[in-house]
Amino acid sequence: MDSSLRGREFHCREWVFDKLLGYVNAGQTPAHPGVVLLGESGCGKTALMTELIWPTASQASPDARHRLRSHVLAYYFCSQLYSHSLRLSHFLFSLRQQIVKHPEVGPAYEQLLRRTGGVELFTYRCMNDSPDRVFAEGLLKPLLALQPPARHYLLLVDGLDETRTPDKAAAAAAAAASAPSRKQLQRSGGSTAAAAAPAGPSGCVFDLLARHQRSLPAWLVLVCSSRRDDRRLSRAFAGFSKLQLTDARKPQVLRDVQQFILWRLDSNEQLRQHLNRETACLLNQLHIKGNACFAYLELVLDAVAQGTVQLSEVAQMPGTLAGVFLYLFQRLFSTDPELWQLARCLLALLLALGEPAPVRLAYQAVSVQNPGLSFARFAAQVARLRLLLRATPDRCLVLAHNALSDWLQDAKYCTPAYLVSQRLGHCLLAAHCLCYWRQPPSAPAERAAMLRDFARSLLAAGCGLQPEHLLLLTLLLLRRWSCGPRLLLRIRDPPELRLMAIALLNWDEAVEQEAASVAASANRPIEPADTQLSLEDEAVDGDDGGGCSGSTTPLMLAAYAGDLATIDRLLAGPNSQLNRRDSGGYSALDWALLGGRADAVTLLLSHGAKPDGPPGCWVALPLALALGRPDLVTLLLSAGADLDRVDSDGRTALMLATARGQSELIGLLLDTGARVDARDNGGRSALLLAALCLHEPISVAAIQRLLDAGADINLADADGRTALIHACLAKRHELMDFLLDSDADVDRCDRDGISALLVSSRLGDFRAVQALLFFNANPHQLDRHGRSALSLAAVSGQSAVVEALLARGLDEGHADNAGLTVLHHAAGAGHADVCQLLLGNGAATRSQDSAGRTPLLLAVLSGQAEVAALLAETDRLAAGIPGHDEDGLTPLLAAFQLGRPDLLELLLSRGADPNMTDRAGRSLLYLAAAASEGGCSLASLLLDCGASSNLADEQGRTPLHVAAWLGRAEAAGLLISRGADVNAKDADGGSALSAAAWQGQAHLCQLLLANGAEVDSVCRQGATPLCIAAQEGHLAVCQVLLDAGARANHVDRIGRTPYRVAVKCGHRQVAELLLARGASPGVASSSSNGGGGGGSGSGATGGSGGSGGSSGGGGSGFTRITPIQGGTFNSQHQLYQHHQYPHHRELHQFQQQQQQPPRSKPTLQLILNNGATVINANASDLSNSSPEEAASAAAGSAVSAIGRGASRRNGDKRRRAAVAAAAAQRQAEDELLARRAAAGIRLQSGDRKETAF
């Protein structure tokens, strides 16, 4: 089966193609017998398979997908939208036909197939009864007997899970385990019986492939796709390689989603119009919410492009495909019940058909429930459903996605409000077939298809028919089209259905008596299941007052068929129910009108049929008008039909005729006395509807009739639009000329301040503009946005209209309410010829709108390279103006953010400053260095144009700083090669090496050191790159720095060494490395930059300052900064989210501690929850220890006490424990100091102050 997505553009998934190419190039025996592509609904499995078979990418640079195309032996697409694709017979026959046509394998395969008699297997009966035998003997056996080709081939099967049910899947998994292998099949000669295949034929494609996948030739790789990754699939296809397409954690999947969004933005101008600085972040939310579901992204972006939703609503949209279906259904149908009724019928029909529905068939079937629906109205409503439906090349309608089919039938997701039943579709289809009772289709194929649909629909609709009744009804329809009604006598049950069928036929004397008996037996109570040929289940009553009773009576069917004899006999009965109405509000008279039976209409009216139904059931006259039958209209008018009756839209009969352009009927209704200036719900009169041209253009003679009857030519609708404005909107020049000649007000404006001239200027209608100007239309009118006719003409891009308006003296420098001049409008729309014309008339190139944007900036933001070149060439200084708009953009910055190297090069060549900065002081080179993709090419372009590689931002950071922080090795190498200072420091004293060390970029550290970076450069806190790497725990960076000669015992401004920082932060491996490289746990280097005076100190307490330095007590690590996410340069239309390099916060707590006077007693500031007993218990042990051992033991006891006390959460106990612990601590310290003094150990300032780790 062919793919419904063939020919659609495909972007991304290159990594999948590369993997598949690796499988087919894997030597004699592939590593896996096959590949399963897994992903949820909407992830693009079918599109991926389609691209494998019919690549859409250019062959100028062939990639993996083009090379894979030559490896495809056969393919098959399974889809619920195409019911025939789920049949095994269709699958087997399709594979055989494709293999036969293959240029390399086909000739030998066909020869072997004919030699073994396998051709006889490919009959529909054999393929349906014994699919396993056909697959094994007709496909596998010849392929296994072939000489193995020189390369591997692919067998592609998409939608494997579409063909299975849970019980079938379990059986398939069990069958796969016992299925014959390739060797068994070869030994048995290809016979399934000899190979002891599992009993029972396969029921679907999944079963068939699961049973025989182990028997495929070694040179044939099976590639299939499925939505579910469950145990049954794993058992059935054990050993297959699985490729997950929806794992959003994988970078290649994220890149696929990103490329898809960028492609949509690039290819859809309507989407680009929604893109601005505020909505750019919403695309990132959409990227996250989509969760690698391309159907979700496509549906939302299509809805935004079509104006159904706004891009700002993305934040409120659900994050699942089912949720966004419900969101869009509520948006489309909550305020338009009429559209939902039509959509419900159409969706039900597509579900019932199981294949694309021809447009004409869909219209006729939906018209069964909507008899007054015209084809033009149907087409307009279907156009509004383009998010849910799509048209095939052969003019058929099909659901937009398989997932929508499942969603519509699952009340859990679609809610009961939007639940669609296939039963309704089958009822519509059956009723549509009955409409052809008297005039069957001429083509035999159409008759056969209609008979099939009729039989299947009656059976599926739940009409309560037994199989024999279904067969008789199908034969009845066949006989009716060929032989006549004699077969009716064989129908015995149910009698009601038989009576309805009799009413549809010409009366025959031979069946008169039988029909009478049937009519008598039909008086018993009728169950809805017996007579369900209507579209709703409603009880049948005997109301004859014109109310809607719910069922279709024999009189209605006879009236539709125009059988006068049957109508006479039914009306002569005791319960004729002449004015009874069905569930759709149609009476027998309406059914006769629907069938176009003038004689039946006359007969019914003569028996007292009412031409005007009860309120809400005005059907007869609109039906006659819809048919365009003056004779039927005359009959109804002569019977007293009300000309002033209105439908649900408030339209009278004259309005309906005018809207359809029925000139003859307009004259008939006006002669009968129809009101000419009546208005509908939208405030439109018959004249306005004629100008609207809803269906067919109305003749000028009919318009003249309306004006002669007193129609107001300047009457406006609810929007303030007159007939002249509507004629200009429809570009009906003949009608416009007639209205102008009839003295229509040429300067009348609607509620938006738009006149006929403004409308024609916006549409670029040169002929209309000429005519309006000839009739002295005011060329200086402005709409409510302050736009002139010249501004609107510039948007349309019609240079002839612009030239005509300029000749009338319109100001080319006019600015609207937003400050946009005419040149702004033309530049933003990308009309280079109009811009050239305006520039020739003196338009200012440097004018700014209220947001500070120049025409050149608008052209760049819109991606209009031709207009940007024209404007930059006209005013070469405009590209180099350093001013910013209110968003901080210049043309050069805008081109950079859009990722357009062509625009960048253009502006730079026209004088733009390559060192231009944004409002944060960041240069373009800085931004390019921060880009994740494509930044190097832009950076190289900027450097070639003279950009400074050492230009710093407001914080002193150079492009090399940001490249080092974000790990952009390629960008860093480029900058260094172009003269970037590797030792440049920012405002905090940090170098590029410090930034790379902070982020753990070991490879960048090696690059910087190799190019002369100072290994021991210090920042404002006195920290070297080694100190920073030790704090962050980057082992590889520490090793690189130590190998380059970094000082392991360096002390920062407050006395911290790399070893102490690593221990404080819990980085054990880093601490061990530093010790191995000579770091001292307790001795600080006296020459450390920023440290205190010389001296030594304990490793536990930190180095102490000497006489000339401040205290060097240990402290916490360097201030931790959580960095803002680095910027990414994706492609055009993706705005930068630049990384803001972190500031080192001042360590005010340490400065405050140094300024406080030293405490007299305690040397350990241990905060204990419950440590008093521990300290007291160990006091006796301290007396027999050295001072250092005592301090260490006290610290150990305190840590143990902290661990035990942390489990207590009661506030009062904790406070009491803290007081007791402090007292015990001071007692222990006093004893310790006394013993140290007795031993002659000098007390130092460091002994009285310690900041805990």
Automatic annotation (TrEMBL):
Domain TANC1/2-like winged helix: 341-433
Residues covered by the TANC1/2-like AAA+ ATPase lid domain: 247-330
First and last residues of every ANK repeat: 620-648, 649-681, 682-718, 719-751, 785-817, 818-850, 887-919, 920-954, 955-987, 988-1020, 1021-1053, 1054-1086
Chain positions covered by the region annotation Disordered: 1081-1161, 1205-1226
Matching SUPFAM superfamilies: Ankyrin repeat
InterPro entries, per database record: AAA_lid_TANC1/2 (IPR058018), Ankyrin_rpt (IPR002110), Ankyrin_rpt-contain_sf (IPR036770), NPHP3-like_N (IPR056884), WH_TANC1/2 (IPR058056)
Segments of skewed composition (Gly residues): 1089-1117
Keywords: ANK repeat, Phosphoprotein, Repeat
Protein name: Uncharacterized protein
